[in-house]
Amino acid sequence: MDDTSKAYAKPLSWSDSDPYEYSPGLDTPSAPEPAAKTHESTGDKALDRWFLEQRGNKRVPKRLDVANELLVTPGGPLKMTGNITLIDEDGSVTHSNNLSLCRCGASKNKPICDDKHLDIEFFDGGAIGQMSDWMPVSRPQTITVTCVKDGPLKFRGYLRIYNKRGQECITMNGALCRCGKSSKKPFCENKGQCCSS
Ligand code: FES
What we know:
Mean pLDDT: 77
Structural class: alpha/beta
Largest sheet: 6 strands, mixed
Bound molecules: FE2/S2 (inorganic) cluster
Number of helices: 3
Low-confidence stretches: 1-39
Shape: globular
Distance between the termini: 31 Å
Number of domains: 1
């Protein structure tokens, strides 16, 4: 991380006594870029294009005028909101504004949560240990989530990841654990190597 990114890296407010410790390690962009200076940005035009493209789809998403966000729920799924393109393992593409993504590995309807986390008593407090490498922005953007076979959920695009305990990480491009085994949840720790073990 260079000096520019350090300027807006946000330290985590995290209790020393918390059991869900985490060491940074996820691949992140090598050179963070500054936020767009004007509202009429390239990103806005790309989003307009994205939204227009979805009109031929049966499940037409709305153009949400907020940034993409991911809520890490304790013992439950990853709740993503935004302008989302989801690419499943078989290559099928759907568009959505709201997804509840399994992160325990037990869903019979992957990548969507089907509440099987309750049956297996999935236990994870939803801690977020990674530092932000991007500045907060409120303008809408698109995000693409790709389900890797026997691997993580890879995402490309701006994403604010947060939990109800006041932690957050703002990043671009990364991989989210969906097997429930990563020690760096909600991120994949090992490029999917832990998923099949
Ligand atoms: S997180 Fe709900 S079924 Fe896996």
